[in-house]
Amino acid sequence: MPTIRVFVSSTFNDFHAERDALVGPVRERLNASLRDLGCRVDFIDLRWGVDTTVDEEDEAQRRILDVCLTEVDRARPFFVGLIGERYGTVPDPLHARFVADLAGIPRTRSVTGVAVTELEFGHAFLWAPSDVEANATVFIRTTVEGSPESWRDADRERLATFVADVREAAREGERIVCRSYSSRYRPETGAADLRVVIDDGGAMAFEDMVVESLLPVLVAHASEALGDDERASRRIVRDRHPVLVGRVGLVDDIVGMLSKPAPSRVGIYGPWGSGKSAVAVAVERSLRERGVPVVSVFVGTDSQTRVMGDVLGELIRAALALAPGVAVPATPRTKRGARRWLAEILTSVHREVGGFCLILDGLNRVEGDREKTALNWFEHIPAQVGVLVTTSSEEQMRMLAEPDVTFYALGPLYPDEAKQAAREWARQSGRDLPASVVDLLGSEVRFPLWIRLAVSVLSTLDADDFRRIGESPHPADAIARLLTERAEGLPPDMQGLFGMMCEAIGERLGHEPAADVLGLLGASYLALSQDDLVAALQDVVPDARFVVSTARNMLDDQVIESTRDAGLRPAHQPFADVLWRYATPRSRTLLAHQLLARGVRDDEDRVQLLVLIALGVPDGLPSELALVAGCLNEMSVSAAAPVVFSILGAPGSRLWELLEQVDPHELNGQGWACLSAAVDVDFGKVWVDNSFEIAEEYRAALAHLIHQKRAAGRLSRRLPRSLKHMRRGQ
CA–CA separation, 378 vs 376, rounded Å? Predict the structure, then answer.
């Protein structure tokens, strides 16, 4: 279910009651109204999981400064602001400028003397460029009858200027709403009395006023977004690849090949991080500028494009969007018929709109070995349609090269190109790198992703860094020295940089909390959302939301957030490999208990639970055997068969013992069908070995076990000898 995020901004100690209402009854009422549209709302309240209940509000505001503007971006365009009679904490100017640079706030906008709350308002809508979408609702409160002095600033001038700016923005902006209300202070609760507030429309409850203001806006957005998943996922990919260095000539060549009357079929091959997606995005942009219609599918950027069938379905939906009048033939029942169906639809679209091009980026991200090589549909794409495919799979490249696809291989950037890329990536965050740092980053050939990661690693300054810089009489020189020292210590490979990013998270948050976040990401077969991570950690990690949000911020674009379920996935395989190293028995325990607490909802959840149980949950789960049987009984055969067969060969897997112990009477017809289908899986590989003979032994042993269970209801305690050593990962 898509989540609409709304950032909440205010000073803290004087707005606890309002924030409680937003995350409680207001959210419940909004969700009830949005449920039929398939959406829900989530207020980003940085009190939850962040210890902002400390006595010193200055400390509370400093703790959220590093994450607040990132969270504003994550919730954009939706923003709720609460203003009372306090201006709020003004952060250290150096720290504020650094955070503002990261958020893209131009240096012409001074942030010296600006409170954290006004920084949030400014980034959301007050200072935002005209092309940045903003949808803000601001509630300005006046408290009567004895509110504490801590709720009022002695110097009201800066607050008055801030409020005036907000009201002016509301008068000029169509989607900026400002409402005033007054409430009484309740000494017994130390908070505002929200049961009855007075606004321009008279007396009403605070939650009624908020729902009345937000619901029409959210319903309109949800209705518009119902058919917008594809456009949203493509927009995310484009936003992640704004820098193109050293490939401009290649882009021009490909665009020429695709836009000619008899278009070509072009492939781009390169290892992870060589810039394939950046080239694809640039080609798409250039084709559109020339007026050439483009159908783009960025594989793996959403839960809808993870298997080949979904990729083709997405391709067909996007192609039909170019020509809504095309009649869609009846859906075929055979694979051969499906290939003809694809050709017929694309031909009809071409006939309707003229020339158009297909872009399939990241074909290697299709999940499953068989799925990756199921490419016989490609030759059925009509010759009059231009095609660009990118992949890091040599096998896919060899298979696609046979139908006359011209492949270009991407390698690393030359040193001068690497320096240029470093400068441009730094400028994306609104800063210039010192020349000494640029020289180090471009001292040899580098892959584009390495440059991007290096710039990201160098940007992770913390409060201790700012204190040391602030003590120097020459802060700019101190920053240059610090960054140069860090650049000298960067590892030469991408996995090393990913590891350094993870280590930096540990240094910032503490090694145990960081390992918990990274371990959950590494252990999960599912794509966990930030809210899932917080829920899994909130009972074991202090300040869970702060930990998760900070880790997410430091990982930058190396995780992809799904537009459908907000799930986070590694953007690159080398990073997935690094995260897997953090997966521990503790990670599996946290993940399993969180999964059971929120409820097992679909096949992905069942696969995840089966994997966790098979690999072992140290703290144990209630009724493991019943859970295994339940997963098989409710899982689709297509999902269960390859998973069961693969887990049998995983190092340390307990699945064989569990299947032996499952009571045959606990399995229903679907459960038996899943096990039987696993025997028939066309697998030449298991996780621990590529041997076809080993796979056949697993198949025979599983068939024998199923026969025993069905025939006698008794279980064989003997495991084939050849399988015993394989289970130990040898």
Answer: 5
- 430 φ/ψ sector (left φ>0, alpha ψ -120 to 50, else beta): left
Residue 703 CA to its chain's centroid (Å): 40
DSSP string, 209-274: HHHHHHHHHHHHHHHHHTT-HHHHHHHHHHHT-----S-HHHHHHHHHHHHSSS--EEEEE--TTS
Decide if 662 contacts 625 (C-beta within 8 A). yes
Residue 608: pLDDT band (50, 70, 90) is confident
**Among the listed ranges 333-337, 398-402, 452-456, 527-531, which one has the minimum average pLDDT value?**
333-337
Q: Which residue has the tokens 């096998």?
A: 395
| Phi, psi for 685 (deg, rounded to 5) | -135, 145
Rg (CA), the chain: 28
SS3 call for 83: strand
The predicted-structure confidence for 207-257, as pLDDT tens digits, reads as follows 999 999 999 999 888 877 655 444 445 555 665 677 889 999 999 999 999
Report CA-CA distances (Å) from 590 to 236, 372, 505, 725: 30, 32, 20, 29
User: How confident is the model at residue 54, as a pLDDT?
Assistant: 47
Secondary structure letter of residue 23 according to DSSP:
I
| Eight-state DSSP code of residue 142 | E
What count of other Cβ atoms lies within 10 Å of the Cβ of residue 246?
18
Q: What is the pLDDT of residue 253?
A: 94
- Tokens read off for 669: 């017809």
**Separation of CA 295 from chain center:** 23
User: What is the C-alpha separation between 36 and 214, in angstroms, rounded?
Assistant: 17
Of 522, 456, 503, which Cα lies nearest the Cα of 483? Answer: 456
Q: Is beta strand 3-9 parallel, antiparallel or unpaired with respect to 78-83?
A: parallel
State how far the Cα of 340 lies from the Cα of 359, in Å rounded to an integer: 20
End-to-end alpha carbon distance in the chain? 42
CA 721, CA 730: separation in Å to the nearest integer? 13
3-class secondary-structure state, position 88: coil
Q: Which among 632, 570, 566, 562 has a CA at the least distance from the CA of 603?
A: 632
| Residue 564 DSSP one-character state | T
Return the DSSP state at 365: G
* Distance, CA of 499 to CA of 191 (rounded, Å): 46
The C-alpha atoms of residue 341 and residue 331 are separated, in whole angstroms, by 8
Tokens 């298979």, located at residue: 399
Q: Output the pLDDT for position 429.
A: 57
21, 515 contact by CB (below 8 A): no
Contacts 24+ apart (CB under 8 A), 19-25: 19/45, 19/47, 19/82, 21/194, 21/206, 21/207, 21/210, 22/80, 22/210, 23/48, 25/207
Sort 552 into a burial class: Cβ within 10 Å, 0-12 / 13-18 / 19+: buried
Q: What is the helix (H) or strand (E) element at residue 400, kind and residue range? A: helix 394-401
- Give the neighbor-by-neighbor strand order of the sheet with 191-199: 40-44, 3-9, 78-83, 135-144, 176-186, 191-199, 202-204
Mean pLDDT of the chain: 81
* Residue 183 CB-density burial (10 A; 0-12 exposed, 13-18 middle, 19+ buried): buried
pLDDT at 656: 78
Neighbours of 671 (CB within 10 A): 21
Residue with tokens 């004087």: 14
Beta bridge partners of 400: none
Using CA atoms, how far apart are residues 39 and 41, in angstroms rounded to an integer? 7
